[in-house]
Amino acid sequence: MQTQILPEVPLLDHAMLGSFLARRFEAQSEKLSDIPHPNHLKDAQKGSERLARAIRNKERIALVGDYDVDGVTSTAIVKRFFDLIPYPLITTIPNRFTDGYGVSKNVLERLDADVIFTVDNGINAIEAAEVCKIRGIDLIITDHHTPGDVLPDAYAIINPKQSDCPYPFKEICGAQVGWLLMGLLKQELGLSIDMRQFFPFLSLAIIADVMPLVGSNRAIVKTGLEMMQTSSLSPFVLIRDFLNRSSVSSEDIAFQIAPRLNSAGRLEDASIALDFLLADTTEKAYHQFELLTALNTLRKETEAQTTAHAMLHVKSEDPIIVVAGEHWNEGVVGIVASRLVSHFQKPAIVLSIHNGIAKGSGRSIGNVDLYSLIKSQEHHLQKFGGHKMAAGLSMSSEAVEKFQQGINESARLIEAKDFIPVNDIIGELRQEMINLGLLELLEQFEPYGEGNPRPRFLIREADVVTVKLFGSDQSHSRLELRPSKLSPKTLELIAFRRTLECPENKKISCSYTVNKNEWNGRVSLQLMLERIF
User: Looking at the predicted structure, is the pLDDT value of residue 28 above 80?
Assistant: First the structure.
């Protein structure tokens, strides 16, 4: 491992830490009443009026979702809303393996409807919009992904990232766009539905889709997690039972629940996750959650195997990693890309080749705009979409080599400093400051996530007392460190899914986070190892 210069950070006490965290939110309102009105979304009024007309005229309405957590949750919110009206809604989520992404021609072939609307997809559905026009179907697109240069010729396009959309808060997920449209539809139909009831679902989507937890996003997640704690809806009763904690945190959702919901669409079919979110009995929720847990275990195995294969194909001298393999599972290539980013500290694109077509995902690092880099090579591509930090793409397998060369030529023009991960270590803590009082202080600034990262602290040149592996497959590490020669006290750090060895000089500098550990009603601190320097 190459030696890295340790960041210069202050020595913190609890008061200084509290002041630092409070400054993150000084300029932002976190009131639910400050959620911008949905009529600020371009075409939202037009879309809601068309849906209301379809309901009044008893037309057939179909919804097309997406297979990730945001897409599945969006679908669940809209389906639950239509059940409250009540009005029949044809609901479909494309299968990653047989349909591909979004409202494709393949999906349209099985839909018999007068109005079709999308959630969390459709901004690049040029061909689908043409098919709808020919068939006399009004297509309403709701999405939050970055629009391309050409927009679909749809009845309405509702996406805050359109350059001419006046909606003031652009960083919202697909579920929020769908929820805002349902809010307008409620007004249009003169219904008295409490739209706050969907906050627990919105929390799932905002956290899982890594939206910044600031402003109204933060307000929704905070309220949604609190509501999740008391909700009588079967999926949330099950989530509480599974987590067995006094409160549900954003990290519980990000690391325990979202991967299970995602595993359905990654490995089999997202309808398994949708049925969990729509479950009307705890028995049904339990059954679906068991399926999701089994799929998640399989996902981990598949991901580990694919990562091992991908590592063999990496050209480490390239600024952008591009690897491709025959019949790698399409559902895990995004996670594998994240693993490569973490290991090599540079952006990575992982492609799976089936029948001469290479499809995959990319993840970025630092300040590198991966979407723009991929766009610079669009002449090699069949499809692409996404944003600065993550993107999806497809091309002929014959184009992979030229794409790899081209994107790396473009990347060599980027300044080296843009590839450096953001240094988010905020300081060092004296050993006596690492106590339950610290845990209480950190809890005041939850939920943590994108835009409000859990504070990371530095340990400098600590003595390594022991390194032990644990877990059924010995895949996790427990480190006992002595930060100060002046104190006999040691600190225990946990590193999940990492097998570590004691360094030769028995010294370590690393960053860590402080988490709450609950076991049999007892609360303790858990220090989670992040980076080793």
Answer: no
CATH number of 309-419: 3.10.310.30
CB atoms within 10 A of CB 397: 16
For domain 11-25+423-532, give its CATH number from 2.60.40.2550, 3.90.1170.50, 2.60.120.1440, 2.40.50.460.
2.40.50.460
pLDDT at 97 (0 to 100): 86
Q: Is the whole model's pTM more than 0.85, yes or no?
A: yes
φ, ψ of residue 68 in degrees (nearest 5): -95, 180
Least confident of 69-73, 359-363, 498-502: 498-502
- Cα angle 2, 4, 8 (rounded to 5 degrees) comes to 175
**DSSP designation for 451:** T
Helix locations, 229-328, DSSP H: 234-243, 250-252, 258-267, 271-278, 282-312
Phi, psi of 16 (to 5 degrees): -65, -40
Q: How far is residue 481's CA from residue 323's CA, in Å, rounded to a whole number?
A: 38
Report the C-alpha gap between 164 and 159 in whole angstroms. Answer: 10
Judge whether 46 and 156 are in contact, CB under 8 Å.
yes
Tell me how far apart the alpha carbons of residues 255 and 257 are, in angstroms, rounded to a whole number.
6
Joined tokens for residue 212:
């910044």
C-alpha to C-alpha distance for 415 and 421, rounded to whole angstroms: 13
Burial tier of 323 (Cβ tally within 10 Å: 0-12, 13-18, 19+): buried
* Angstrom distance (rounded) from CA 129 to CA 161: 19
Per CATH, the number for 32-291 is: 3.90.1640.30
Residues 6+ apart with CB under 8 A from 268: 295
φ/ψ of residue 429, rounded to 5: -115, 135
- Domain ranges for the chain, please list them: 11-25+423-532, 32-291, 309-419
271-278 vs 234-243: helix axis angle to the nearest 10? 100
Instruction: Judge whether 362 and 370 are in contact, CB under 8 Å.
Output: yes
Give dist(CA 86, CA 248) in Å, integer: 31
What residue has token string 């004296």? Answer: 430
Please compute Rg for the chain using Cα positions: 24
